[in-house]
Amino acid sequence: MAEPKVKYDRQLRIWGEQGQAALEKSSICLLNCGPTGSETLKNLVLGGIGSITVVDGSKVEVGDLGNNFLVDESSVGQSKAKCVSSFLQELNDSVKAKFVEEYPEALIETNPSFFSQFTLVIATQLVESSMIKLDRICREANVILIFARSYGLTGFVRISLKEHTVIESKPEHFLDDLRLNNPWLELKSFADSIDLTVQDPVAHKHIPYVVILVKMADEWAKSHGGKLPSTREQKKEFKDLLKARMVSQDEDNYKEAIEASFKVFAPRGISLDLQRILNDSSSEVDSNSSDFWVLVAALKEFIANEGGGEAPLEGSIPDMTSSTEQYINLQNIYLAKAEADFLVMEQLVRSILKKIGRDSNSIPKATIRSFCKNARKLRVCRYRSIEDEFNSPNLPELQKYLTDEDSSGGATFVGRGAMAPPKPLNFHIAVGIYILLRAVDRFAANYNSFPGQFDSATDEDIPRLKSAAISLLSDLGCNGTALAEDLINEMCRFGAAELHAVAALVGGIASQEVIKLITRQFVPMSGTYIFNGIDHKSQLLSL
Amino acid sequence: MAETAATQPSRSRDLDKLLLRPGNLVGPRFEPSAQLRDDVQNHARVLVVGAGGLGCELLKDLALSGFHNLDVIDMDRIEVTNLNRQFLFRVEDVGKPKAEVAAKRVMERISGVNIVPHFCRIEDKDIDFYNDFMIIALGLDSVEARSYINNVACSFLASVFFSPCHEIEYDSDDNPLEETIKPMVDGGTEGFKGHARVILPGVTPCFECTIWLFPPQVKFPLCTLAETPRTAAHCIEYAHLIKWNEVVHNFAHGGTAFDPDNPQHMKWVYDEAAKRAELFGIPGVTYSFTQGVVKNIIPAIASTNAIISAACTLETLKIATECSKTMSNYLTYNGSEGLHTKVAEFERDKDCLVCGPGVLIEVDTSVTLQKFMNLLEEHPKLQLTKASITHRGKNLYMQAPPVLEEMTRSNLSLPLFELMGKLSKDVIHVNGMTNKNNQKVSCLRKLRVTFKGVDGVTDMDTAGGA
Predict the structure, then answer these.
(1) GO cellular-component terms in the record (chain B) (predicted)?
(2) A238 alpha carbon, distance to own chain's centre
(3) What ipTM did this prediction achieve?
(4) pTM of the prediction?
C-alpha cells in the first residue's frame, strides 16, 4: 500500500479504494461553522475528503470557545470561517481547505450560482425560509444537499436530492445466491457426479451441503410432480429425509444442509423490492438516462429472457464443511455461471446504449460486473423537496406520529434479563420536536429572536411559541392536536443554544450520510432524522 | 432564574441555558443555578477509559460540556492507522503514548480544562483510584476490559442492609446505598454500528447482567485449518496458529511468541498463508486481509465514534446535573442501511454475580480460609480458582506478589470467622479465575458470607446462592 493510504486503512476496509477515490475527488461546501457544521466537516476531513469551503459571516465570540473545538482563544474577534478552515487544514494536509467570510443567507439570496461548483453542500443551522430557497438552488444545479441542525437537546438531519441510486448497498444480512431451488445445468451435473452413499465416512461427511440439497431437492421434485416442498408437513418431511442420510452424529455437512434447507423452500425469482425498481418509469431509458437506469433496463431484459426469471448469479458461495477439492470445484462452477451471466448482461448493456444514441463502451466493464454482482441488492432513494414537505407533508403519516399509534419503535428485546413492558409514546417527542423546530423559525421571523434566546423574555415566549406551533399545525391540516406543554417549555428553555455534545452527535450522523452519498455505497437514510436528546428516542419521520 | 449579564460574554453561553434555567423534562433533583455549573466545572471528576477513537472524542465532548477535571487512562501508543479518526494525534505523534498526547492537545485548545493522563493498564491502578471519580466514561474496544472496569465499579456497591460499615439485619430487598453507586457510561463502535449505555450499578443492568449480548468470537475448527482449508482466512489462521508454533518448536524463530505488531512476523504469516493458498488453489490471501484476520482488525471511522461518544457525554452531563431525563438504558445505532437508533430498557439480572448483592455463602465458624477457598472452587455459580480474598480492605490472602503471598499464607489455616473479626455476616471480595465461554478469565466477585449458629442466624438454603 502506498504510504499515504496506510492512515486510511481502517476505513478502506469499509469502503475500499473506489470509495476512498470518490471521497478524494469531491468538493464540499459547509454553511455556518458553529459546532454542528464544524463537527460534521471534521469527520469528513479526517476521512480524506478532496476539498472543503467553509462559509460563515460571523466572528468568533467568547461563547464559541465553550462549544466549538475548532476555534481557539487567539481567534476571538476574527472570522470564524477562517479559523475553522485553518484548523481543519491542520487535521489533514491532503485536503484543500478554503473559506468564504459571508453569511449563507446572503449567498443564497444574491449568488445562487456559487453552489454549482460543489459535489455536496452541508447546510447547518438554517431556518425554514433559507432551507426552501437553498433546496431549490441545489436541485436546479444537481448538487447534493444535506441539512443538519442542533437546537438545545434536539436536532435534525435531512438529505435532499431528487434521486440517489446505489449499486453497492452492502446490506449486512442478505441471503446468499445459491439457487438451490433453481439449479442450472452445470450445477446439476456436478451434483449428479457425486454419490451421497459413498462408503468412506470421511468422504461422506465432507460432501458440501449445496450438493446434498441440490440432489435431495431433485429427488423430491421427481416424486412430487416437479414441485419443491411447500407445506409445513412437506418441509418437515424433507428435513427428515436429510436426517435419515446421516451415518453419524458428527456430520456437520448434513447439519448445515438441514439448517440451510429453507433455501430450497424459498420462492424462485426476484424480490418485490427489485421488481419495483424494474417497474419504475425510469427504466424506460433514453439518452438522458443515468448509467444506473441503463443497467436496470438491461437487467430487466436479462431477467425476462436469458435469466429465466432470475437476476445474474452473484457468484460467491459461503464457507461450508467440505473437502477442499469439492469446495473449490463448487466455487468455480458458481464463478463460471456468474461470468456467463455477466457476458450476456454486457451485450445487453452495449446494445441498449447504442439504441439510445450513446457510445456502447461508455459504461465500463467493471461497473457492469459490479452491477451484476449486486443486482439483487439495488436501492433507489428519492427525497421530496423541502418546499413540498413543508407545505404539504404526508398527512396520514403526520397524524400517525402525533397520535403515536405505531409503537413499533418501542423496546422489544428478549433475553435473560427481563424486558420492561413496551412504553407507548415513541413518536410523541420526536414529532413534537419536528413541529417546534419549524415553529421557532416562524417565531424568529416575527420577533427577530428565538424563543428564550434572552433570559428576560423566556416566560412571555412560551405562549408565543405555543401559538406559533398551533398555527403551523393548523396550516398543515392537523387542527386540534396538542403538543406536549412540557416540550414547548423545553424548547424555550433551550433558547436556540448550540450544545457541543448535541452538535457532535448530529454532526456525526450528517457526516456519515455524506460519506454514503459520495461513495455511493451503503444506503443513506430516508426522511428526516429527528434527534431527541431528552430520552434518546430519536426517530425517522417520512413526511 | 439566573440573570446572565448581557454585557459580559461567557464561555458557557450555551451550556448556561441548560444548567441555569428550570425545566420540566428534567431529573427529579435538578437545581438550576450558576452554582450547579460551577460545581460541575470545579468539582466533578470524570475518568475517561481509553484514549483512542472514542476516548479522543469523549475528552473533547466532556471538556466542552462543562467538565474541567478529567483523567484519561490508556496503555497504547499512537499508530499511523489511528489517524483517520483519533483527531488529537498528528503524524509527528506516532509512537507517543495516546493518553499523554490526548490530554495535552485538549488542554492546549480549551483553556481551564485540566486532564491528568495515565499511560498504563487499567489493572495497574488501585481500586481506590477508580473510586475518586464521580462518573467513569468507557471508550474501550474489548469485552475483557469492560468486564474489568464493571467489576471494579460494582465492587463499590454496598447495600443499606449489608453495608460493610454497619451490622444490620439482612433484608431480602437489598437496595443499594446511593452514595456507593458508581455510574458508568459505556460506548462501543464497529464500522457503522455502535452502542451507548448507562450503567448505574445496582439500579440498571451492569455489563455482566447483559453479557449474553456479546456473541462468542468465531473460531475455526482445527481440522478445517489443518486438513480441509477452503477460504483465505483458513490459510491465514493455519499459518498464524499452527505453522508458527511448529516452527517455534523447531527454534527457527528463537522460540518467540507471535507478535502481531511485528511486521516481520506478520510478513512470515502472510507468506506461509499465500503458499498454502496456492497449494490448495484458494484465492484471496492478501497482506491486508492477513493483517485483518490475525489482528482481528475492526474497521473504524470518525463519524460513528463521534456519534457514540457524544451520546455518552450527554448522558454523563445528565447524570452529573439531572438537567434532563437520562437514557434508559441501552442505545444501539446502525448507520449502514439507512439510519437505525433504538433505546432498549434492559433489566438487571437479580442473580448477577457482579452487581447483585453477592452470592450468599453460609459456612461454619470452624471453616478455615483454605477450606473456604476450596468451597469457592466447587461452588456451581462461582467455580473460582486462584482466589485472592479481601475483607473491608484488609488482605486475607493474596496469590501475588510473592511478598504478599508469603505474608498472608499463614491465614490459610485460620478460621474465616476469626479473620473476619467474628462478625456473624459480612461482605468480602474475591479476585480469581473462572470459566467463561471455555476460556479462563479473571474476575472479581462479591460474596455475602454468613456464619451458622451465630447471633440467631438460622440455617439458610445456600444452594444457588443469591
Answers:
(1) cytoplasm; nucleus
(2) 39
(3) 0.93
(4) 0.90
